[in-house]
Design a protein that fits this description.
InterPro entries: DUF306_Meta_HslJ, HslJ-like_sf, Hsp_HslJ-like. It comes from Galbibacter orientalis DSM 19592. Residues 22-41 are annotated as: Disordered. This is Heat shock protein. Residues 158-258 form the DUF306 domain. Strand 11 and strand 12 form a beta hairpin. The chain has helices at residues 2-34, 38-42, 223-233; strands at residues 51-55, 60-65, 69-74, 80-84, 96-103, 106-113, 117-118, 124-125, 127-134, 142-150, 159-165, 168-169, 178-182, 187-191, 196-203, 207-210, 214-215, 236-243, 246-251, 254-260. The strands form 3 sheets. The protein has an 8-stranded antiparallel beta sheet, with no helix packed on it. It folds into 2 domains: 47-150; 154-260, Lipocalin (Beta Barrel). It is built from 3 helices and 20 strands. The chain is of the alpha+beta class.
């Protein structure tokens, strides 16, 4: 009888130990998941997405594929709305880019501000984002605020010296204008032929927008190149392509080619 009791106690002890071990393993797995790096989380982003944003209270997310669509989802209304990506608009008085689209599904307006943003859990982003939505079933607009970032083309992230401007080669015996793109900070720096310049930068999948450029005020004998260069790049949006280590920026009638600085 004592032997049976002892065996029963041993089995109960073993079961309790196993349960405690399972709980500890589950807790460890949960902690490891919570400590996942942003890079691991990004693996779930659908292919082709160029910009992501999200916010809380209520929880919402935004995915933009600049070749296809803007898709907004939330726990509030609307639950989901997707529209084509309209032409970007750059406001005059703020460092931002705006997309406003209205379809049968409703209205989706997205404004991306070049301003640092921190989420409730302490994660830092380079852009603040506001979203306004409205469908036929809604009487008023719903506004959402959060943070976002571009999944940009990091080949841009370098210094590029001007090779040609509108088909005319630049004299290589002099110090040529150059642009340095910093995607992480959303800034462009450079040299315009005489003065140092800097401004805001917004990068999309195959286009970039340079904001109003600030410049030093040095006087130089050869001011024509600098004037033409600044006219071509200041507060402009470009499409860009790469070929044989040459970066080509195109905006309206302006076509500029740059070579990466070693």
């Amino acid at each position: 009888m004592k032997k049976i009791i002892l065996i029963g106690i041993s089995l109960l002890t073993l079961t309790a130990c196993n349960d405690a071990k399972k709980k500890e393993e589950a807790k460890t797995a949960e902690e490891n998941t919570a400590k996942e790096t942003p890079m691991k989380k990004e693996e779930a982003i659908p292919q082709g997405i160029d910009f992501i944003a999200s916010g809380e209270n209520p929880s919402w997310s935004l995915l933009i594929d600049f070749d296809k669509s803007m898709t907004f989802t939330s726990l509030d209304n609307p639950k989901k709305i997707s529209t084509p990506v309209p032409e970007a608009r750059i406001p005059q008085d703020v460092s931002a880019v705006n997309y406003s689209a209205e379809t049968e599904a409703g209205l989706l307006q997205v404004t991306i501000f070049k301003e640092s943003c921190e989420t409730e859990n302490g994660e830092s982003f380079s852009y603040k984002v506001t979203v306004s939505t409205k469908t036929d079933e809604m009487q008023d607009y719903n506004d959402f605020k959060g943070c976002g970032k571009y999944i940009g083309d990091y080949r841009l992230n370098d210094i590029w010296a001007l090779e040609t401007m509108n088909g005319k080669p630049v004299d290589k015996s002099m110090k040529r204008p150059n642009l340095e793109f910093n995607l992480r900070s959303g800034k462009v720096f450079g040299f315009s032929g005489c003065n140092r310049i800097n401004g805001t930068l917004v990068v999309e999948k195959d286009s970039l927008a340079i904001g109003e450029l600030m410049s030093t005020k040095m006087a130089c004998p050869n001011a024509e190149l600098e004037t033409n260069f600044l006219d071509a790049v200041n507060n402009k949006k470009f499409s860009f392509t790469y070929k044989n280590l040459i970066l080509t920026l195109t905006s309206g009638e302006n076509n500029l080619t740059f070579r990466k600085v070693d």
